[in-house]
Structure formats: C-alpha cells, structure tokens
C-alpha cells in the first residue's frame, strides 16, 4: 500500500489516497486520535470512487466525527479499473427487464453480482490486512453500505468484521441469501420500502436469512436515494454500539 | 373526568388516576412544565391497567423526561370493566389454534379484534376531549403502542392525532389493513421479527398499506417482549421529531 496524496478537510479529517496492488482507495482518519481508532469499511456502488466521492466523503466525515477511521476501495470493473466483460451483457439485460416492467431473471442477477462478489471480497480482505497494519488504526472493524451482496459475503467469511450496516438497495442472488445464514455478527439493514428498482421481497428474504442474534431492519420511505437523515443516525448509533 | 388520586414519582413526574364516564385512567405530567406540553396516548393490552402498570409507568417516565404528558385508559373488557361476552370464545379459539400450530382463522381474528376497536376508539376520543381541556396539556397528540388495530383506526379517524408509534405484535383483521390506507400521519412501526405468536406477513401487509408519506418499520430480534433498548430510543426520537 502506498499513499499517493494527502489533504486535511475543513473539519480536520485527514484524507489520504492510496494504491494497493493496483487498486485505488481512500483512507480517512479523525482530526486527532490519541489512541488507535476502530475502522469502518465504506462499501460503494459500481459508479466508481470518483462519482461516489461526494457521498463517500460525507459518510467519512461522519465516521471521523464519531471517532472512526474509514476507507473505500475501487470495485472491480469500476473507475479506472478494467471493465468486467460479462457484466456489460448482464447490465444491459437488467436495463431491458426494468424498462419492460419485468422481474430480472435469476440467471441475470447471478451473472451480474456473483463474479463481482467473488473478486471484490478478497480485495477488501487484502485492504483490511494493509489498513490494520497502519499505526493509529485498530479493530474492531465494521462494514457499511455499498453493494449488499459484497457485505453479506464479507460478513460471512471475514472473522475480523464485528458489525455490518447494510443497504438493501441492489439485486441479491439466491446464493447470497443462503450465505447470509452463516452470518452471526450484528447486522443493521436499511431498506427503502418504495425503492421501485429494488426487489423488496428478496431484501426481506435476505434479512430473514441472517443467522445473527442481533439483526435490525429499518425500512423507510423516500425512494432509492432518499434515505431519511434519522435512518442515517440510527446506522451511526449501530456502529457506536458495536465498534466501541 | 374526575381525579381519584395523585402522587409524585421519585423523578418528579405527577401521576393522577382518573375516572371518565366510568372508565379508569391514569395521567402523567412532567415535573415542571412552564408551558403546555404535547400529549402521548399510551395504548396497552387487554391484560389491564393494573397488570400493565409497571411497563406503562416506565413509558410515562420516559415521556415526561422528554417533555410530554401521557395518559392511559382501561380497555373495554379489561381490568375492573365488564368482560366482553364474545371475546372469551374468540380468545379460546386463538389459544386452540396456536397450541395446534395452526394459523388463526380470519373470522376469529375479526371476532376478537373488531368489536374491541369499535368500542375503544370512541373512548380514546372522549378521553382526548377531556385531556386536552386540562390546563397544562396541549397538542400535538401522539398515540403509542398497545393493540395495533386500535392505533390504526384512531390514526385513520382522529384528526387531532399528529403521529403514531405502533407495535406490530397482535393479530390484525384484513379490514384494519384496508383502513390503514386512509392513514396519512407519520407512522413508526416496531416489529419483533422473531415474535412467534405474531403473523409477520400481516404486519408487513399492514405497514405496506399505510398511506403516510413518512412511515418507518423497525424490525428487531428478541421475541414478543424483547424489544431492544435502542428500538425504544428510536421510537422516542420519532415522537420528538413530530410532536415538538
């Protein structure tokens, strides 16, 4: 991991861009931290770090204010990274089905999501190795938002993850719902009830499948991008309870 | 409405028992309130005010600490009030179905709940008339918890209600789900996902039916009586947002 740039945001948060095995990422750490701080991994969407930056930095500032470091890495096939060949075809089929008002077929969901999960999760784990080796960053580790299937797999396979705050706003393969049964860490799931592009029943099935003793589903209105401020607050309180 | 007793709780909350048209009730007001305070109606279960008192007073203390008056009245057929003849038969059938692991029939749910709603809602409205006429109590008014079907009907028909915090932990007639479409005030619904005696799908159908622009569903684990503390906190924040 090597850092390529560094700046102080106006709230004192330190923002450092890095590259790890060719994958770009950003690390944010609180203005002043007398002791090593817990870490929240910020999941994001295939729109890419550049496009997602305004929203990511908002989440990172909030995390820093709450006493957490946070980090994001570019997803496979996003931003400057080489496109995934198979994904283009699956994405075109999703678009076609949605425009036609048809449900997206299971094979298409699998083709779009499963290879992404297979590639992204080991990359998150390698990033975790590097991030936890830095001075000033320590466990416990949380995962927050982004493509929910990546969060589910990571929560199922990565023992260093202590809590997952997930956003049920993307298509979920049946195989991922099965994997959720192996998740035992506390899980907080945000669902936008009136998110028209989302499969609500799959989100409910996924929530039901989590094997966690503590799991919460917070469903609200406002469409895909309209998560109300109080729901963001509840997610922040979730990480406060479990990472401190 | 006449008051029959009065005591100060150790936190300064004033607790007054009252009787209104033969119906017993309790009113709690904050220790000191320089201006009239908003009111939260505390719904409860057919177990009766006496049995429910420890839980009610906990909710009332919290409401008082947050700057709200709160009140509870005895449900029809509960406590010292005459039993409802038809309810006994329906309740026996519910018990039988649950012990046999069968779903409770729609007719039984209707027979148990609808007459209770028909009788309880006008009683709440009469209590509201009397409570809002007292010095020191003013709107807006919230309704919280108890038999959810009563809360739904009250939210649908009572224009003085500004927000409803409901607990999806009791059987819901299909007719009440239809009535929920007419509810437009903000609604916050708590659901215990692993509440084995409850019909989860009916709770989800009910939530979906609410016509409110702002509605939230907060589902958690812990069984019927195990609502986690942070969920109680979120409900308190909901009333704070809408009654102040």
Structure description:
- The structure is a homodimer of 244-residue chains.
- Chain A is α/β, with parallel strands linked by helices and 244 residues long.
- Chain A has a single domain, classed as Alpha/Beta hydrolase fold, catalytic domain (Rossmann fold), CATH 3.40.50.1820.
- Helices cover 41% and strands 24% of the residues of chain A.
- Chain A has 7 helices and 9 strands; from the N terminus they run E-E-E-E-H-E-H-H-E-H-E-H-E-H-E-H.
- The first copy, chain A, has helices at residues 49-65, 85-99, 106-132, 148-157, 174-180, 200-209, 229-243, and strands spanning 2-8, 14-20, 23-29, 37-42, 69-73, 137-144, 161-167, 187-192, 215-220.
- The longest helix of chain A is centred in the middle third of the chain and has 27 residues, at 106-132.
- The mean pLDDT of chain A is 95.
- The A-B interface holds A 193, 204, 207-208, 212-221, 228, 230-231, 233-234, 237-238, 241 and B 193, 204, 207-208, 212-221, 228, 230-231, 233-234, 237-238, 241.
- Strand 9 of chain A pairs antiparallel with strand 9 of chain B, so a sheet runs across the interface.
Compile the SSE list and pairings:
Two copies of one chain form a homodimer.
Chain A (H helix, E strand, L loop, with lengths): L1 E7 L5 E7 L2 E7 L7 E6 L6 H17 L3 E5 L11 H15 L6 H27 L4 E8 L3 H10 L3 E7 L6 H7 L6 E6 L7 H10 L5 E6 L8 H15 L1
Parallel strand pairs in A: 4-5, 4-6, 6-7, 7-8, 8-9
Antiparallel strand pairs in A: 1-2, 2-3, 3-5
Helix pairs in contact in A: 2-3, 3-4, 4-5, 5-6
